[in-house]
Design goal:
- The structure holds 2 protein chains of 2 kinds.
- By secondary structure, chain A is an alpha/beta fold.
- In chain A, 46% of the residues lie in helices and 18% in strands.
- Chain A has helices at 17-30, 77-83, 118-125, 131-143, 148-158, 164-182, 187-201, 203-213; strands at 4-12, 34-39, 49-57, 71-74, 92-96, 112-116.
- In chain A, 50% of the residues are buried.
- Chain B is globular.
- Classes of the chains: A alpha/beta, B alpha/beta.
- At the A-B interface, helix 1 and strand 2 of A face helix 7, strand 8, helix 9 and helix 12 of B.
């Protein structure tokens, strides 16, 4: 089976979902995959919701628009309400448990969920606004679709250099947290963990180093 | 920068603007409208940097007439808009076609009629392929289905416009405009400074005889002569037809779709092929001239057709005209406000395949 994944990333406007959508797309491009990125298209306003769809594929990509996504990054409650029911059977969602009550997460094994307290982790990393890169780090670790190091290399394409280090730390913190969550879960998740194991292995000391540099 | 091989990750709108810049576009005239605003945004800087002109006009009508003026001077110039704005530009486009003025015009189609909505649509197919304004004329119409094609088609559109002294239309939609994809840019064109030297208006230097570019032909037989000349030009375009085929060879049913719907339909065809269904895709890249001979050939082989469009059925008329000697085409319409996905197309394709 060729590499393919699609993801809808959703949150409040300002949480940076479009930024991490771009970032993942850049990483896919760097790893020689075909990629598309499309922002939500409608009449949007400040304080409203934002989402984007990213597709990464070894094959040519037909539609950039996905109605039943294989994965989700859910940054807030309205996004869970809107997209969780659309998640494809066997799909994976990364849910920001700082803003979404875990009892709302669908049970019963149709889908897989990784809960990440992204706001708390972002505070810990030293920048409360790095919630988005925490979530993306968790997503990349849980799916193994691209290497975390590739994502780190692409940060400078989507943000000014001075905030790159804290976002590297955020990516790694999110990835480490997700892998911790996935430990001891069912075999499907173990394979996902394996794929991501490499970039994550060297993460912890490096994350500390980055933090120290700051 | 690693030079021209470097892949860029850009919106379709930006790809169009970059393609125009690389093709030597020197003037851009526009008026804001969603979903094409990234084009004037890019050009507002790029034109100035390129030593050209950018004008945000007082209206679409004014922008299109500025385009007419620049084209008459032999300058590579462009305007872009979306459906309601395109309606306003039609008068000037008719005059440009009548007076054989080259120009590149971009329509990022949105829902209509009227102000409609800001989502993707293919509702302007008739307007694009039948001329659009008054009178007996055609535009060369190119329909990209990816950011790379949007770039390449715009890059080529200026040469085509000047070679045939006719406006060329790039017809995209909100999906093509807003979607980001990697593109590989091409080498910037060196435009011949003598381009259009035998007809452009630059002030009759060295007391040469004055020239008139006009679309008014009142003398006996004059307009008929002009229109015959235009018709010969449109006929000559037929050799430029361009289209993509996918899995048509042994297909029993061929899906005909263009632009964003074309690429989405391709995924549906691919998925159905994986299930052993004998379906294929035919995607016109030139909407005018329409690839009628190629479709006729497929019809002659006994294939049946399903046209899928993001409108109430416009291109299907051209498909039916193309295949009329041997068959017909079914139609599946996508309505405005819906962003279709490949799954949405599988059932209608199977229905059409099952119908004898």
């Amino acid at each position: 089976m060729k590499r393919y994944i699609d993801v809808i990333m959703a949150g409040f406007g300002g949480q940076g979902v479009l930024l991490i959508g771009n970032l993942l797309a850049y990483a896919g491009m760097r790893e020689k995959l075909n990629v598309t990125f499309i922002p939500v298209y409608g009449v949007e306003m400040r304080g409203g919701t934002a989402n984007c769809t990213v597709v990464l594929s070894e094959d040519e990509i037909g539609s950039p628009i996905i109605n039943k996504p294989k994965s989700l990054i859910v940054m807030n409650r309205p996004s869970l309400d809107k997209f969780q029911p659309k998640l494809a059977d066997g799909g994976l969602q990364i849910v920001n448990s700082s803003l979404v009550d875990p009892v709302l997460v669908e049970q019963g094994g149709r889908i897989r969920t990784v809960l990440v307290p992204a706001n708390e982790l972002a505070e810990k990393v030293g920048n409360a606004r790095a919630v988005n890169t925490i979530m993306l780090g968790a997503y990349v670790a849980a799916t193994g679709m691209v290497k975390l190091s590739t994502v780190e290399d692409c940060l400078s394409a989507v943000m000014p250099p001075k905030i790159v280090p804290v976002n590297i730390a955020a990516l790694r913190a999110g990835a480490a947290y997700a892998l911790e969550q996935l430990k001891g879960q069912t075999p499907a998740k173990v394979s996902a963990k394996k794929a991501a194991a490499k970039p994550v292995a060297k993460k912890k000391p490096a994350a500390k180093k980055t933090a120290a540099k700051k | 920068m690693a030079g021209k091989k470097e892949r860029l990750f850009v919106k379709g709108n930006e790809a169009i603007a970059m393609g125009a810049l690389a093709a030597g576009c020197k003037c851009f005239f526009g008026y804001p409208i969603t979903p094409q605003n990234d084009i004037p945004e890019f050009m507002s800087k790029a034109m100035v940097d390129a030593g050209g002109e950018f004008v945000q006009a007082e209206s679409e009508v004014a922008a299109a007439n500025m385009l007419l003026g620049a084209g008459a001077c032999g300058i590579r110039a462009m305007t872009s808009s979306s459906s309601p704005g395109m309606s306003l530009k039609q008068e000037a486009i008719s005059y440009m076609a009548g007076s054989e003025i080259p120009a590149v015009i971009v329509n990022m189609n949105r829902g209509g009629p009227g102000l409609g909505d800001i989502g993707p649509s293919q509702g302007d197919y008739f307007q694009s392929t039948r001329g659009g304004g008054h009178g007996d004329y055609r535009l060369l119409v190119l329909a990209p289905s990816s950011a790379q094609e949007a770039y390449d088609m715009t890059y080529d559109a200026f040469d085509l416009a000047f070679a045939s002294r006719n406006p060329v239309l790039i017809l995209g939609d909100a999906i093509i405009g807003q979607m980001k994809e990697p593109i590989t840019p091409r080498e910037p064109k060196q435009v011949d400074p003598e381009e259009g030297a035998d007809w452009r208006l630059i002030g009759a230097p060295n007391s040469r005889e004055h020239r008139i570019i006009k679309s008014l032909f009142l003398m006996d037989g004059e307009l008929a002569g002009q229109n015959r000349k235009l018709q010969a030009k449109y006929d000559a375009w037929k050799k430029m037809v361009d289209f993509e085929t996918f899995e048509v060879k042994d297909a029993e049913l061929v899906v005909v779709a263009y632009g964003s719907i074309g690429r989405i339909a391709k995924n549906a065809v691919r998925a159905l092929r994986a299930k052993g269904k004998k379906v294929g895709l035919f995607r016109p890249k030139t909407l005018y001239p329409f690839p009628e001979k190629a479709l006729e050939k497929l019809a002659k082989e006994g294939k049946r057709f399903l046209t899928i469009e993001h409108n109430l059925g416009q291109m299907v008329e051209d498909v039916r005209l193309s295949v009329r000697k041997y068959g017909d085409s079914d139609l599946f319409c996508v309505y405005p406000g819906n962003m279709p996905s490949p799954d949405d197309f599988e059932a209608p394709i199977l229905r059409a395949l099952g119908r004898k």
